[in-house]
């Protein structure tokens, strides 16, 4: 295979990227994106501040721009994200208690109704844990510890056909507190029948040339709970070829690791652009890390 998407498809997986609607009329960008990838995540356009800028007034124009661009080219779309402490619309930020709980439920219902039956997965809840494995303090957490399970139950009822994921960063190292905290939550959800289908590991790697310890063990351990796993926002400081090769191999070694998404197309498109963390340079040329990933797929 000569593209990342086609190479991943050889083992039934996908290879995706994050897309910014504002860049779609850059032809270098959109040409690479459509050629190389077969799964698309909106980098910002499906987040709560974008989709519900005023309470109960939903706006899907930018999200739909990405959705339509992708599906017209035969690419699938992951939804990102419904409930998160960050990128909340202003009206939501100072809410609490049952007012916020109801607003969260209404937000999930409103956004999921619009995309019902259209997406491969939703990151229902994003980044709800602290580094030590306890719950992150946020206005959502302040509504009660059950806010995550309420979000997932609401999501399942809103669209029974879409895969529901929990997504977080720094949950790649198996011996890390945060990884264990998320693991225990998934285990608890599975034992009590709370609907959850997948765990997204953001995989924002920094520094060094080796993977976080026991990365593959983390993937297989989550999978053993009965969920799919995916690498959802991959970028690596200076595009370490050994880390890119290793994370790709780890996913391929775990049957329930269903796909890999890099968090942008070219280094210049990245939220970490000063770290040159992606697979294409600013000119749209394939980097060494691209080749290491393609060869590993
Ligand atoms: C980032 C985007 O890339 C930026 O454009 C934006 O300014 C902030 O959010 N974890 C996530 C993503 O789940 O949504 C974040 O995306 C990066 C960290």
TrEMBL record:
Transmembrane segments: none
Protein name as annotated: Beta-xylanase
Any GO molecular function: endo-1,4-beta-xylanase activity
Record organism: Micromonospora robiginosa
UniProt keyword Signal, yes or no: yes
Key word Calcium present: no
Enzyme Commission no: 3.2.1.8
One of the GO biological process terms: xylan catabolic process
Keyword field: Carbohydrate metabolism, Glycosidase, Hydrolase, Polysaccharide degradation, Signal, Xylan degradation
Coiled-coil intervals: none
Shown chain mapped onto the complete sequence: 37 to 333 of 490
Highest taxon of source: Bacteria
Lineage of origin: Bacteria, Bacillati, Actinomycetota, Actinomycetes, Micromonosporales
Family: Belongs to the glycosyl hydrolase 10 (cellulase F) family.
């Amino acid at each position: 295979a000569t593209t990342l998407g086609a190479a991943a498809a050889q083992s039934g997986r996908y290879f995706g990227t994050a897309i910014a609607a504002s860049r779609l009329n850059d032809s270098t960008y959109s040409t690479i994106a459509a050629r190389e990838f077969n799964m698309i995540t909106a980098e910002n356009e499906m987040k709560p501040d974008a989709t519900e800028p005023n309470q109960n007034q939903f706006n899907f124009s930018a999200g739909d721009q990405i959705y339509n661009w992708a599906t017209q080219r035969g690419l699938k779309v992951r939804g990102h994200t419904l409930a998160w402490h960050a990128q909340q619309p202003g009206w939501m930020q100072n809410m609490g208690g049952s007012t916020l709980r109801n607003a969260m439920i209404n937000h999930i219902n409103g956004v999921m109704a619009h995309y019902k039956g259209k997406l491969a997965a939703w990151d229902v809840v994003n980044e709800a844990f602290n580094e030590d494995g306890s719950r992150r303090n946020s206005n959502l957490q302040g509504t009660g510890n059950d806010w995550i399970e309420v979000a997932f139950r609401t999501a399942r009822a809103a669209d029974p056909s879409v895969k529901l994921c929990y997504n977080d960063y720094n949950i790649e190292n198996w011996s890390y507190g945060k990884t264990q905290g998320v693991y225990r939550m998934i285990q608890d959800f599975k034992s009590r029948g709370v609907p959850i289908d997948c765990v997204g590991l953001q995989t924002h790697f920094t520094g060094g040339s080796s993977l976080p310890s026991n990365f593959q063990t983390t993937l297989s351990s989550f999978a053993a709970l009965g969920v799919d796993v995916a690498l959802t926002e991959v970028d690596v400081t200076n595009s370490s070829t050994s880390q890119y090769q290793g994370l790709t191999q780890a996913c391929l070694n775990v049957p329930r690791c269903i796909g890999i998404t890099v968090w942008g197309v070219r280094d210049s498109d990245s939220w970490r652009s000063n770290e040159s963390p992606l697979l294409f340079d600013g000119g749209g040329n394939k980097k060494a890390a691209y080749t290491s990933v393609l060869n590993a797929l």
